[in-house]
Amino acid sequence: MKHYLLSVCYSAGGTAPTAEALKKITVDVIALREQMRAAGVWVFGGGLHAPESATVLRNQKGQIVLTDGPFLETKEQIGGITIIAVPDLDAALHWASKSAEATTCPIEVRPFMEQPD
């Protein structure tokens, strides 16, 4: 099985969903997670706090420098992730399409690099 990262992306500075919309999204995401578990593809996943909660560590000339808050200027941000184990990209795309429906957000699909034995 290959592992894929499904990243939930949303517009930086965009409008948050209404409470009613967020409730439906939450119900749909929980249902999808149960479908993934039942299918045996679920590895790990979860939502992320806002980018302002991030801490970035950078190596600057041998010294580790900590920076609070979002470090990168970006148009989109990651709101959550799911890691799945599936046979191929087509299977990953199948689950990503279900994730896009459940979250109402774009989903980026990226394979993990194969590790040597």
What does this structure look like?
The chain has 117 residues and is α+β, with helices and mostly antiparallel strands. It has one domain: Alpha-Beta Plaits (2-Layer Sandwich). The protein contains two helices and six strands. Strands 2-5-1-6 form a four-stranded antiparallel sheet, covered by helices on one side. A hairpin with a 2-residue loop joins strand 3 and strand 4.
What is the CATH architecture assignment?
A: 2-Layer Sandwich
SSE string, helices as H and strands as E: EHEEEEHE
Note the main sheet: 4 strands, antiparallel
| First and last CA, distance | 14 Å
Using only C-alpha atoms, the radius of gyration works out to: 16 Å
Q: What is the helix tally?
A: 2
Oligomer: single chain
- Domain count: the total is 1
Which SSEs are present, and which pair or pack?
Layout: E1 2-11, H1 19-39, E2 42-47, E3 55-60, E4 63-68, E5 76-86, H2 89-103, E6 107-111
Antiparallel strand pairs: 1-5, 1-6, 2-5, 3-4
